[in-house]
Structure formats: structure tokens, C-alpha cells
């Protein structure tokens, strides 16, 4: 039981999960938006400025070699104001990538919990910061609140299956810093310079890196790319109020529509998060037992297989 108390469970790479998690930690200035293409100029125009990216991808020999062979590390002691933490806790890479991004965004309201954590850990070494993340009960609880309820059971099973070959996926963060573009990966030796960071860095810096990584993944589309942006309701509410004051009718209608759309997105994400937190395992087990007792389980399984085959 003592060991389970400090477990970090895996969570989904979903913008709704990340949005609600950082809000629960007290930071409501930031929002995560999923990016499907760097050629979608309308989306980039709407959500700008982008503060950083969080990327989930397959972590294998090809992708590791691409990053290490193409780019170079920097010494953290040369940049003491960069928040970089080693990942010392299993399954914490999603939250670690979030923290690595938030802690390095200038002039945002982190909220009291994260601001205090930053103040306390910035003087520490990257290894000590990683330990501090793992030992922080508030952050761990916020993370585990979005693990599926049966995750503990899955973790016990995975312990039994250690050594079985499978795919590994990993979160990293990418941030602009003083004219350079940095990749922050808790499994690396330190921050990695992957390009320059001009005003159009998501296209001039991030896009080439991302395309190279996809090539290293041999065209695999198993990734999630999230842009870290200003909370869109707050952003467009301010623009809406300015448009009202200046009586700009077209902008008033445009900003109002965007605000309404963003509110609907957040409402839907909240509903989905409630479903994620619900434990459907007892229902599933009871349904299986019910069908088994009535000797209908094999029939139902065969029916479902036929349905899947038709598709």
C-alpha cells in the first residue's frame, strides 16, 4: 500500500485533460490546443501567440538517434533561469512536460501552488527538481485524477509483464528562449537547441524539427502535438470589450462567436473528463457474469467479432 501511495499513473494526451489539470493546479492563464497540421494557417492565426509545444511520440532508437545526432545539448549551469528537470518518476512525463513549459513562460500567472513550487525548486539541480516533482503530493494528485480508475490494476499487470517487448511513448516540451528554440526532455542530459526562435518560430523552427522527427519515425502518425497558448476565452473577451468600446461591428460579432465556440469546447471537455474518471470496470464485469450465467457470452462475443469484421 505504501508503494501505491506514490504511484504516478499514465494519463491521456488530450488537450481537455491538460486544460483541466493545470486549472486544478491554479493556473488558468494557459490553454492547450491540438495541432493537426503546420499548414493550417487559420488555426495558427487564431490561437497566436504560441508559448510552446508539448509533443507525445514513439520513443525508440530511431527518434532518440535523430535528436542526439542532429542537435546539441546546452549546460544548465550556463542558463540558471531555465527550469529543466530530470525525469526520475515513471509515468510522470506528461506532467513533467507541462511543468517544463509553464515554468519557462515569462509573465504568466502560475497560481500560488505552481509559483511556490517554482520558487522553491529553481535553485535546485535538475535531478533534485525531478525528485521534487515526484514527491509533490498536490501535483501528483492533480496528475492521477485524470488516470482511468482501473489504471492501478493495469499498472500491477504491467509490473508482471516487465521485459515484454512493446512500444514506448514519451512527452517532451519545446519552448522559445532568448532567440533559440529549446527541447526539454527529462530523459536527456539537458536542454537541447533545435533551432532559432524568431517571431514566426512555430513555422521556421518547430516545423523543420517536427518533420525530421516524423521522418525518423518512418512516417508513423502515432503522435499528439499540443500548442500551449493563452486562455482563448480570456484573450478574446478582452478583444471583444475593446471592439465594443471602439464600436467595430464586424470584430464584435467575430469575437463573440469565438468566445461562444470556446465555451462549448470547454463544456464538452469537462463532460469527457467526467466520463474518464468514472470506473466502468464493475459494470463490465457484471455484464460478463450476467451473459455467462445465461450462456450468452460466446454468442455475444461472436456477434461483436462479426460486426467488427464487417467494418
TrEMBL record:
A GO molecular function term, named singly, is: cysteine-type deubiquitinase activity
Keywords, A to Z, come to: Coiled coil, Hydrolase, Protease, Thiol protease, Ubl conjugation pathway
**Which residue positions hold the site described Important for enzyme activity?**
185
Top-level taxon in the UniProt lineage = Eukaryota
What residues form the catalytic site here?
A: 93, 170
EC number(s) recorded for this UniProt protein: 3.4.19.12
Could you confirm whether the keyword Coiled coil appears in this record? yes
Q: Say which enzyme class the record assigns.
A: hydrolase
Alphabetical list of InterPro entries matching this protein: Papain-like_cys_pep_sf, Peptidase_C12_UCH, Peptidase_C12_UCH_sf, Ubiquitinyl_hydrolase_UCH37, UCH_C
Give yes or no: UniProt keyword Repeat.
no
Question: Which reactions is this enzyme annotated as catalysing?
Answer: Thiol-dependent hydrolysis of ester, thioester, amide, peptide and isopeptide bonds formed by the C-terminal Gly of ubiquitin (a 76-residue protein attached to proteins as an intracellular targeting signal)
Enumerate the residues marked as the site Transition state stabilizer. 87
GO BP field: protein deubiquitination; ubiquitin-dependent protein catabolic process
Coiled-coil residue windows: 226-253
Of the GO CC terms on this record, one is:
cytoplasm
Q: Which residues form the UCH catalytic domain?
A: 7-230
The record's comment on protein family reads: Belongs to the peptidase C12 family.
Protein name (Swiss-Prot/TrEMBL): Ubiquitin carboxyl-terminal hydrolase
